[in-house]
Amino acid sequence: MTLHTQTPLVESRPMSLSSGRSIWLKLDALQPPGSFKIRGIGLACETHRERGARRFVSSSGGNAGLAVAYAGRVLAIPVTVVVPETTSERAKELLLRENAEIIVHGVSWQEANDFALSLLGASDAFLHPFDDPLLWQGHATIVDEVFRSGLKPDAIVLSVGGGGLLSGVAEGLRRNGWGDLPILAVETEGAASFHAAIEAGHPVELAGITSIATSLGAKRVCERAVYWSQEHPILSVVVSDQSALSACEAFLADHRVLVEPACGASLSLAYEKAPELDPFGTILIVACGGATATIDQIRQWSARYA
Ligand SMILES: *Cc1c(COP(=O)(O)O)cnc(C)c1O
């Protein structure tokens, strides 16, 4: 038994029609804690438990923290999540439902993270949201499942925050002998740290995050993501917040699943018939999910563009 579930792989009729090609979805929005993150974090938590960890510590008020809280509850290991004062009530509510201990500390993520690190004792395990080989190994199971299904897409579309999902999928492609299968790595304007990194040839720190897709809001991607950009065919694509939001609405109507704009960014390529899809007949989109947005929040953001 793993902490993540094997998710459905389905062809989207509406998205195939709107993009004029075959669009397949890996529905990781249906993971119990709401996003793909449980794949890698679940594996990391199980590994730390085997090594004797008695507590899991995270500094993420987003989907990574939720995955840690979920894993801790299922494995019966206490979880402490340190979040900054800016964390929404909804995020805290979701963490409390998983029985996590929440410590509110500092005005920014940096301060919360520093405090979380200062709490670590010998039997505590700290779970990073994207920069950890155990995470990539776990995220790679997305590709294992697609490989076993018998479907071989011509390209894979996924969203990039800190680059953990990208690094995991690239690893999964390599370990299944699909090292030639291109990845379209999607970010939103104002959170395009992978785009900046591949232009520079190394991770660079963005001055700030201005996108509403907060789950993509890592100011700097991990080194591993840049390594893969040199070892694997990866095309960086940057879309607007507005495109990501419209895709969330369309996806809810088409597939009855609410996802965050972080996921909408990837879905928007099919809905907007992005030219980057032109070379490919069959596309797999990782519907990475995300539990932190409500439909009211998505519509409030969308209203800014109306
Ligand atoms: C974390 C997350 C991402 C980005 O993943 P990284 O591993 O940080 O690149 C994308 N979408 C959702 C919903 C997420 O939770």
Automatic annotation (TrEMBL):
EC number: 4.3.1.17
Gene Ontology molecular function: L-serine ammonia-lyase activity; threonine deaminase activity
InterPro entries in UniProt: Ser/Thr_Dehydratase (IPR050147), TrpB-like_PALP (IPR001926), TrpB-like_PALP_sf (IPR036052)
SUPFAM superfamilies recorded: Tryptophan synthase beta subunit-like PLP-dependent enzymes
One GO BP: isoleucine biosynthetic process
Keyword Lyase appears in the UniProt entry: yes
Cofactor(s) needed: pyridoxal 5'-phosphate
Domain (Tryptophan synthase beta chain-like PALP) ranges: 3-289
Alphabetically ordered keywords of this record: Lyase, Pyridoxal phosphate
EC main group: lyase
A family per Pfam: PALP
Catalytic activity: L-serine = pyruvate + NH4(+)
Source domain of life: Bacteria
Family per record: Belongs to the serine/threonine dehydratase family.
Protein name: L-serine ammonia-lyase
Gene for this chain: SDS
